[in-house]
Amino acid sequence: MIRAVSTRRLGAAALLLLGAAFSHSALAHNPMCECKAIDAEQIRCTGGFSDGSGAPGVTLDVIGYDETILVPGKLGSDSTLTFKKPSSEFYVLFDAGPGHVVEIDQADIETP
Fold this sequence. Notes:
Elements: H1 2-27, E1 31-37, E2 42-49, E3 59-64, E4 69-71, E5 80-84, E6 90-95, E7 101-105
Antiparallel strand pairs: 1-2, 2-5, 3-4, 3-6, 6-7
């Protein structure tokens, strides 16, 4: 009888620890993206996640206010994308999948 109770308690404790590990991982993986003007004509965006991981290959599109894709792109192996600043109003969309999207309006891009 004692052995059965101990096994159940160990099983319950293991499930609680496993659940805590999964919830911690889910909370620590938020998308992050930052865009800065290199000069008057070029902008560099860097994407990644709050756990410190990069985002190579993740979609990063430059989109006009009329929803036209002005510059379709993907982050390079260094998790960056550099593009020519569009002449029309735009925003940047970092899209790593459902729940992992960041939008940056042109007004929020740092200038040199």
